[in-house]
Here is the input.
Amino acid sequence: MTGRKTAVWLGAMAALAALVLVAFAGVLSRPGMVGHTWDWGVPAFAEQFRDMAWRHLSTWDDYFETGRYHYFKLELLYWWALWPFSAAGGEAVSKWLPLTLTFLSGAALWPLARRQGLSPLYAGLASVFYAFSPYALSRIVAGHMPMLAGYALLPLVVLSAKVLMARLEASRPGAFYFTVLTGFLLGLTSLHPGVGMSAAAMLTIAFAWRVCCGGRRRLALCAAFVGLGLVAVAMNIHFMAPFVGDYFGKGAIRHGWGLSVSAEGDVTVDTELPRREAYHESTSQPVDAAALLRLRPGMDTEYVYPIPDGLGLPWHVAAVAVALCVFAYAFRSRKNPELTALFVTAVVGVLLVSGSRTLPGMAFYQLGLKKTLPILFAAFSNTTRWLPLVVLPYAILFARAAADLAAAGRPRLVGWASLAVTLLFVSPFLAGGLTRPFDPDRDIQPLTLKQTPIGPEDASVYAFLRDRPDAFRVAYLPPIGITWPGETQFTFEWTSAYSPKPFFLAFKTHPLAEPVFNGLYAEHPTTTLARLAALGSCRFLVYPHYAHAYTYDDFQPAYVPPDTVDGYKDYKPVFDANLAMQRELRRLPLFSTVDVYENEAFLPLVRPGDRVAAVEPVGGAGPANPVVAALAEETALPDYDPGTVYLRAGRDPVFLEFLASVMGDGPKKSRLLVGRAADAKLLVERPREAIPAPSLEFRRLGPTSVRLRVHGVTAAFPLVFQETFHAGWKALLVPRRAGELTGEGNGAARLLPRYVPSPAAGPDAATAGELAGYLARGEVSTLGDGDPKTRRVFAYGPGGAVVGETETAAAVGFVSRRVAGSVQNDNLPGPRLTEGFFPAAFAPRDPSTLTRPLDPAGWAVAGAGQGRPVAWPDALHLEAYGFANAWWLDPAILRLLPEAGADAPGYFARRPDGGLDFEVLLSFAPQTSYLMGLAGSAAAYAACLAVLVVGPFAIKRREKPHA
Here is the structure.
């Protein structure tokens, strides 16, 4: 690049940057984190960015809805890219991230515009049009930053593809390099599938036009197109492979509205299509609106472009001028393949944005997608997702038409007119469209950014939850997704999704949420909601002092609220009164502006049960989840036993026989319950005598695994894991030497003097005396190896910026007090990446075994004794409490495995009193294939980067003329 070209480029970028600062002036001048109107947020603190980055390596989201299976990790790269900037604080990132992406969008279009022969003036106009387009503003207001990132990359995808096609047709070197480059950029746009599909559509049109309309070397063009597609797929194989397997295997999808509105079963295309069909009818736009980029604003259309007051007529004149210049290309005498492909893309884009309102659109959506590829119909039922197909060609074709007019005569006049049209068109963005005041009397929906200062105690509350070493969940009150964010001086509404601990009852999709919600808002609530929350291991409830609280559900139609907020009842007085009535919730006097309640009925994440109860509806309106409906009543009764594991009986004779066996032959107690919320009659039957439950120690290793050791098993018992039930959770028996399982002879006692209880854990940490008793009774098997365990945490200042760092070290990790038969022991062995890969398993000797799974004679084990974990039979994996995992662990079946010796690993060890000790790894099996996919994606990234680094040098060598 010559000095003159460099100066021109720098000047253009400086002008673009100045306009970006003008557009974001309102955001930058106001304090507080940027909040959006849709589904994106920026965490407040650096550790939250780190947690989000690491959790995107997992298929189980343990921080959401008490857990869900979700491998659609499109934002993995997004969070890893943000992590290095997180020390600046959430406020700075939330402001500068959309600003930077807006600038990069315009900057990326500049080289593409210059390639079309546009002068710096008209290339600059194209860049401004693209950077401040309705799509860009809508993505920022909606909060779709990954989509905006893909949008910024889109011009580079198109530019690389055009260079690739030109080199192929000219038989110049570099075809392989530009194939990889185009595929790499295409793969990066898949930070969101909407932009990725738009990029793929643009490339398909461009290559098809070259192949079908006279392009030379058609075979080479087709090969390059297939090659770049394979590169993009390889980069995203970690989520594409499991998605394709699920979709074509059982019709399940892991991405869609169903995940946000239903906690029952898998989300499938069949359950999703009815919602998406109605959505599609709502968002399909008139063709003239699509052509003028003046679509109906709203949260359903994800579109906003507010015309400044007094500019309505001039703006529409400018929009008409832009559209006329674009579609005038059809009558241009001198056409070229690149511009023609962009024109075709614009026409296709307008038709796609119009949805089913045109005959071509109806054929495409209703026949091409809905009938043959319904998953794509579900993903693109909101037609505005195709707007990049309109905006990018419009930016180039409008500037090209203006340049042609200038060349025909009166260049100065045309230049000023083009500048005026461009600035008028983008005036909704430049004139404060991001931060315009929300007028509830005029605007139906608050389609504008809100900024919420990080409260003075936000960091303190975060640190209080973070610094506690015990594993628990936290609930944010009113429950997240119910209170409209931004009306208070607290950021908890925005940051609870990025809590330092997994959170509970998100978006009312957890099965236990229904009775909890009803209890908090009902006219006559139950006072034992803490016991229901305890079944989700919810330890703390965090309640900022809200100005108001409302819900989308009207729990009391006759209730007359003191105020109405955005058309909804203010339920805060009811909520506050019902919360104050709750027993076993203790308010901690820690903060002046935030209430923190401790759940004294807390139950640990993993624990042994002491009996099994059966639940079945017997009359009245059948509840969706009878076990949860029964629990809502059972927990309020004085004889409620948290060790009782509630199962639904059902009508399956095989399961009924199994249930009768695990309940035992002793006396039973039956109870008929009538539900509060509905006229449902439920029969609950449970044994009067409890099972002799063993003791248990556990360590959470991450979202997809928990290590535990069970001590003193003398009879079969239910093992409860309070994560949302999924068949993918496996209980793997891990081979160990006898001393490791029992703790005998491993020298744990010598580390006892070095044990210092964590001050942050308070009374929940075991005292030295209690820990000595655990060791003596064999309830704790290890205190680690004595090596120092260090932990670094940040201190936060204004805006969430990192202002300091502390480091603590301990020779012995955290050990909790014994609660409900369980001890959290963070000194158990840590995670091993491949430990849960391809375990051995119990196999039925014949099909009849599955009808009598409790008979040890029906099971055989293959692969045991080779150092591999053995998966406990899936037939003994049960759904407990209407949502959780439970395994029926029978020592008679366990004894089929090799016994551990002093030097030989085995799967159980005998105690002097006859009880058994063994180790279990609770592992989420789909994580195995996901990690393999991640390795494949990482290899594809590495290969692409190697080609992109070395490729230019190889191209230059080949292009040098030979002597």
About this structure: The first strand starts at residue 33 and ends at 35. The chain has 34 helices and 29 strands.
